[in-house]
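Posting this for the archive.
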Amino acid sequence: MICVTVEIREGTLTSQVQVTAPSIKRALKIAGRGKPGRKVCLLFPIDPEAFFVHTPSDTREKAA
């Protein structure tokens, strides 16, 4: 999973949201759904610390 910030424009209203999804393409689709006139773009730079979302299955326990 990844986490990116996207900008959503609807007419004169602009907002930024963070979206977590399996890919950047899927994150843009998630942010754009709901309204046909909505414009969505990926914001750069992408924060490398927040880009990869770590889930409990990603962590490995060290043997004692």
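The chain has one domain: 2-56. The mean pLDDT is 84.
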